[in-house]
Design goal:
The chain has 154 residues and is an all-alpha fold. The chain has a domain of 103 residues. It is built from 8 helices and no strands. This is DOCK2 protein.
């Protein structure tokens, strides 16, 4: 059953990606509303799906930046949702590395926002590292590590 479910998630993920890029000027109407659902999809532990869907985040940033000169709504929403998703057991070191490399590569094609994107990626990477550490420590027996990790996260 799981292998069929995984195949369906991948197939549906690729279809969602294709639909996103066909939205054209209407994409802005789905930011920040679709950030959470897209994040959930990118966190599915399927490498090809992650590689195909993480670039949607850059497209969201670019859309908001072109409309407002910043991407604060997107940024705030992804940070909020990322906390929730990692707490729920999703996300891993590999995701963090892909997130960083894909968004950094996308940003290089747009010098006007490259520095902003790199700062955002650094912020999210740092947060994700702390959230993953926190999740690991919460499953550990040592109360000293829990307190230290909680202080780091705060």
């Amino acid at each position: 059953f799981f292998s069929k479910k995984r195949d369906m998630r991948r197939l549906i993920g690729f279809a969602i990606r294709d639909m996103w890029y066909k939205l054209g000027q209407n994409k802005i109407c789905f930011i920040p509303g679709m950030v959470g659902p897209i994040l959930e999809m990118t966190l599915i532990p399927e490498v090809e799906l992650r590689k195909a869907t993480i670039p949607i985040f850059f497209d969201m940033m670019l859309c908001e930046y072109q409309r407002t000169g910043e991407f604060r709504k997107f940024e705030n929403e992804i940070i909020l949702k990322l906390d929730h998703e990692v707490e729920g057991g999703r996300g891993d070191e590999h995701y963090m590395q892909l997130f960083e490399s894909i968004l950094t590569e996308c940003a290089r094609q747009y010098p006007a926002i490259c520095t902003l994107v790199e700062s955002f990626v650094s912020l999210v990477k740092g947060l994700l590292e702390k959230l993953l550490d926190y999740r690991t420590v919460m499953n550990d027996e040592s109360k000293d590590n829990r307190m230290s990790c909680t202080v780091n996260l705060l």
